[in-house]
Write a structure and sequence with these properties.
283 residues; mainly alpha; MetI-like fold; 15 helices; 75% helix; membrane; transmembrane helix; Spermidine/putrescine ABC transporter permease; MetI-like
Length: 283
């Protein structure tokens, strides 16, 4: 084999070793542990399907997965609606490239703090005696505090939308900035209305950004457990939270089985998105 044929393999070797050590090996370990057995004090290396059987046949598990999918669907729809219009405004209504960059950086300011801090900051605002309830009562809009604002599904969705909207804004903004403005001018010269330009030109060309943002948001929501734990007040559940509780109880094989199922589910969702939008072809 000549040197020219060996060089590409040598160049790919470091990345291959890194992926094998930090991606393939951990996933293989989780899959292996998911077939082990356990009791209240220890785990046993074995090859049993008990963990998968208990997970698949449990009504509680099905309810938890459906609840997680509900969060993913609602948060995806809201972040897409908010993220698209924020990106659209930055790309088409802000003419100065400098101002576009400044406003985009303003959107990233919350990321200078921890996710947990940003999430917990909603508690004094949404609480029974929080700023929002007190303001509404002072204005006479309500007679008593709104209980659903905190420690509810509403609070969980609100916090997730706040945390993950930028993951939708960034790829959509990047895609919109790549659209040739001559296409929009041509559509306008052809007599297309603003709505027709949006639906027939801009949105189809923005599909790669929407797909990438959707993958980011869906995968983050499906694996989230801290937000559900804090913002629901223990009144709701997610797959990530269920796995965290299993780990706390030293039920590592059961948690590993749930991790494998969750990974397979997320991969199917990502594959469905990529099936709808061929990112490589569109970019």
């Amino acid at each position: 084999m000549t040197l020219s044929r060996i060089v590409p393999y040598l160049q790919a070797t470091p990345l291959t070793l890194i992926l094998a050590a930090f991606l393939v090996l951990p996933i293989a370990t989780i899959v292996m542990v998911s077939f082990w057995d356990y009791d209240s004090i220890q785990i046993f290396p074995a090859f049993v399907f008990t963990n998968y059987e208990e997970t698949i046949t449990s009504p509680v598990t099905w309810s938890t997965y459906l609840n997680t999918l509900k969060y993913a669907g609602i948060v995806w729809a809201l972040t897409l609606a908010i993220g698209f219009w924020v990106a659209y405004y930055l790309a088409f209504h802000i003419r100065s490239a400098t101002m576009q960059m400044v406003l985009f950086l303003v959107c990233t300011i919350p990321f200078l703090t921890s996710n947990i801090i940003r999430m917990i900051s909603w508690i004094p605002f949404l609480g029974r005696n929080g700023l929002l309830n007190q303001t509404l009562m002072t204005m006479g809009v309500i007679d008593q505090p709104l209980e659903f604002l905190l420690f509810s599904d509403f609070a969980v969705v609100l916090a997730m939308v706040h945390l993950y909207t930028l993951f939708m804004v960034t790829p959509i903004f990047n895609t919109l900035m790549r659209i040739d403005r001559a296409l929009i001018e041509a559509a306008r010269d052809a007599g297309a209305s603003a709505f027709q330009i949006l639906t027939n030109v801009i949105i189809p060309l923005a599909k790669p950004g929407i797909a990438i943002g959707s993958i980011f948001v869906v995968t983050l929501v499906m694996g989230d457990f801290i937000t559900v734990r804090f913002m629901s007040g223990g009144q709701s559940a997610s797959v990530g939270l269920m796995m965290a509780n299993q780990i706390a109880l030293l039920q590592y094989p059961a948690a590993a089985a749930n991790a494998v199922i969750l990974l397979a589910l997320v991969l199917l969702m990502v594959a469905a998105i990529l099936r709808i939008v061929n990112i490589r072809k569109e970019l």
